[in-house]
Amino acid sequence: MERFKTSLIISTYNWPEALDLCLQSSLHQVIPPDEILIADDGSDERTAKLVAQYAETAPIPIIHVWHEDNGFRLGSIRNKAIARASGDYIIQIDGDVILPPRFIQDHLSVAHPRRFVSGSRVLLGAEYSAQLLEQHSIDVKVWQKGVCNKLNAIRLPWISPLFRRYKPEVTRGCNMAFWRDDAICVNGYNELIQGWGSEDYEFGMRLSHIGTRHFALKLAGCVYHIYHNVRARDQSVTNQVLANLTRSRRLLRCKHGISQYLNPLTDSIISEE
Q1: Range 141-153 burial, b when 16+ CB lie within 10 A, else e
Q2: Please, are residues 203 and 90 in contact by the beta-carbon 8 Å criterion?
Q3: Radius of gyration of the chain (CA)
Q4: Which domain CATH number covers 27?
């Protein structure tokens, strides 16, 4: 496959301490992305200040994509970041994860046309997460007490390609990769889905309906998830209904998606809030 440009999209909301570790690890990759976009769902000036500091010294472009804080609008800010991205291939994570040094390399090793990828995660316990945040450390020791899903940290990348495709139900937006053109084809994330839940599943279903296959990246490309309290899930039932409609009707595109931010002739960004 010819060389392609990669955009790393990091979603965040008002947790600059975790984003600091995420950015540190993103810039310590064996194979770095070509650019980093911070998809900021309305954070205050602390996050803007942190991103500006990294952007001044980073060897690659770091772009802050922000919109006003008007509730949990993860799909909307991800759409805006994808629209702004210049990469052919999108690797998407959350701003509360730490990346192992070969994370980007592992994702690129399984990047193929008509495929989207979900990776695994290791869950860091509350006490250990607090320690890493206090020390500003990205040196994760997975065998520490309180770390869950430890086996996901085992890295055997030569075995990863042997895994067959998985159902889109296991799609995780905190560790996901897809072709930008495929995302545009399905009109990106469904912005009718607001609040916690189902946005990744519904997006993955539409990707599968256009013929892209879901690939589970196992034994490589995991992320270390920093502990936080569970988000409110008051919209989860409504969101699940929308996702189930997408599945049952085999919908290919959503109505309210990324197209509102793109020039229809060039797929380049035309507007931002």
Answers
A1: ebeeeebeeeebb
A2: no
A3: 17
A4: 3.90.550.10
Q: Would 39 be classed as within a structural domain?
A: yes
What digits encode the pLDDT tens for the residues 125-165? 999 999 999 999 999 999 888 899 999 999 998 887 776 66
C-alpha 83: how far from chain center: 14
Alpha helix (H) residue ranges in 122-263 = 126-135, 180-185, 199-209, 236-248
8-29 pLDDT tens trace:
999 999 999 999 999 999 999 9
Domain count, the chain: 1
- Per the structure, the complete domain to which residue 211 belongs is given by 6-252
Residue 269 included in any domain: no
Dist. CA 32–CA 231, nearest whole Å: 31
Contact of 38 with 62, CB cutoff 8 Å: yes
Contacts with 76 (C-beta within 8 Å, 6 or more apart), sequence order:
41, 67, 189, 191, 194
Q: pLDDT: is 222 or 158 the higher one?
A: 222
* Tokens representing residue 29 in the block: 């990759």
Write down the pTM of the prediction: 0.94
Distance of CA 38 to the CA centre of its chain: 10
Q: How far apart are CA 270 and CA 117, in angstroms?
A: 28
Query: Is 266 within a domain?
Result: no
Q: What is the number of other CB atoms lying within 10 angstroms of the CB of residue 181?
A: 11
Measured CA to CA in angstroms, residue 70 lies from 58, 151, 240 at distances of: 30, 38, 21
Residue 148 within any structural domain of the chain: yes
